[in-house]
Write a structure and sequence with these properties.
Elements lengths: L6 H18 L3 H7 L4 H9 L18 H14 L1 H20 L2 H12 L5 E4 L15 E5 L2 E12 L6 E7 L9 E7 L5 E6 L10 E11 L4 E2 L5 H37 L1 E2 L2 E2 L4 H29 L6 H30 L5 H10 L8 H19 L1
Parallel strand pairs: 1-4
Antiparallel strand pairs: 2-3, 3-7, 4-5, 5-8, 6-7, 9-10
Bound molecules: flavin-adenine dinucleotide (FAD).
Length: about 375
């Protein structure tokens, strides 16, 4: 399907595809098996200017928007979702800074992120605050000389590998979520350490780690935007970033579809390639329909984000839910089409199916997002009454 991408968008997409095929494909199984953070690939992505895509031009970026980011994430995820999320998480980690940070903060941090020298990460989740993100307990007490952070963040992508962290913490613990603020914390700050490194079902080459703050003092100028707005900033951030998870899902599903078609053409049973069998054809056709529908929804949601539309909660959630459910279904069907070999680790669809599951869980589980969509529907109905 033609999405009428601009020449620049086509260039970004094909560059990302080249890095994915030339640099990631040969090592993806090894990275997964060893659960190894893909530093060499991060360097390749930086050399190809991929980290510049989502950073404004005045800070050494290319000034791309949500759609450009989605195009890169999709191409990386078509080959390896773990690499794609490590890249996307760095964008997530600096979005709040790009949207609400001062010029000084942006000048200090964004060029290093744009040129791929430093990765960033975003941290809101805690042991007692997952879907109920408003229940965070990490505090950032205002004292002389800055904010004193105490608490633990859980399941943070790029944890331990990133240099720059946007942390949501309570600057006023008496006000709950209304007392939350976004604060930049640099790796190496005294009192900031890394806890448990998670061993995961999928996206194994990505780093998922605890962040531990024990009397960690950060300068006052590390506060992003106004105090007390951290929770709202985080929710707005997710509205804009969820098409990126959708793009990860579309790329992954596309990769699985291609692997299934290749295999179905080669595999001979009952004297014919299995792609000649009606049931297999039906499965492949449904997979292709769903992948294309997910792509269309993700691109449309991304374009809406880029249009500057005030409210994108519903569309952004829809794109994430539909695309991630599609990725789960398509990767599962790809394993089915590949039969026994599909279940083996030597074959890529096994990893793809494992990688797909997380897409229905992070950045808002699909149940939570369905709730959010239903709430928007109710609000819209109420407005027309
Ligand atoms: C690999 C990985 C990477 C991650 N990366 C990051 C990151 O970079 N930064 C970050 O801050 N967080 C990150 N997370 C956290 C992630 O966003 C949360 O895991 C997710 O939001 C779900 O929270 P939870 O795991 O606590 O599940 P819970 O909230 O405990 O949910 C458990 C189950 O209950 C359901 N449920 C709960 N409440 C409701 C409700 N009201 N209605 C319907 N169903 C409900 C959920 O849908 C789910 O099925 C990551 C998680 C993982 C696993």
């Amino acid at each position: 399907m033609d999405y009428f991408l601009s020449e620049e968008q086509e260039t970004i997409k094909s560059l990302a595809r080249r890095v994915a095929e030339e640099r990631i494909l040969p090592v993806r199984a090894e990275l997964d098996e060893n659960e190894e953070f893909p530093w060499a690939i991060v360097k390749d992505l930086a050399d190809a200017d991929m980290f510049r895509v989502f950073v404004p031009e005045e800070y050494e970026g290319l000034g791309g928007g949500c759609l450009e980011l989605c195009l890169v994430v999709e191409e990386l995820s078509r080959v390896c979702s773990a690499v794609a999320v490590s890249y996307a998480a760095s964008a997530l980690g600096c979005f709040t800074l790009m949207e609400y940070g001062t010029e000084e903060q942006q000048r200090k941090y964004l060029p290093d992120i744009a040129n791929g020298k430093k990765l960033s990460a975003f941290a809101i989740t805690e042991p007692t605050a997952g879907s109920d993100a408003s229940n965070i307990k990490t505090t950032a007490e205002k004292i002389e000389g800055g904010y004193l952070l105490n608490g633990t963040k859980q399941f943070i992508t790029n944890g331990g590998e990133a240099e720059i962290y946007t942390v949501i913490a309570l600057t006023d613990k008496t006000r709950g979520a209304r007392g939350a603020s976004a604060i930049l914390v640099e790796k190496g700050t005294e009192g900031f350490s890394f806890g448990k490194k998670e061993k995961k079902m999928g996206i194994r080459a990505s780093a998922t780690r605890e962040l531990v703050f024990r009397n960690c003092l950060v300068p006052e100028e590390n506060l992003i935007g106004k105090p007390g707005l951290g929770f709202i900033q985080a929710m707005r951030l997710f509205d804009k970033s969820r098409p990126g998870i959708g793009a990860q899902a579309v790329g992954l599903a596309q990769g699985a579809l291609e692997a299934a078609v290749d295999y179905a053409q080669q595999r001979i049973q009952f004297g014919q390639p299995i792609i000649s069998i009606g049931v297999v054809q039906d499965m492949l056709a449904d997979m292709a329909i769903h992948v294309e529908a997910a792509r269309a929804l993700v691109y449309a949601a991304a374009r809406m984000v880029d249009s500057g539309a005030k409210k994108v909660t519903e569309e952004s959630a829809m794109s994430k839910v539909f695309a991630s459910d599609t990725a789960m279904k398509v990767t599962t069907d790809a394993v089915q089409i590949c039969g026994g070999i599909g279940y083996m680790r030597d074959f890529p669809v096994e990893k793809m199916m494992r990688d797909a599951k997380i897409l229905q869980i992070y950045e808002g589980t699909n149940q939570i997002l369905r709730n959010a969509i239903a709430i928007e529907l109710r609000k819209r109905k109420a407005r027309t009454e």
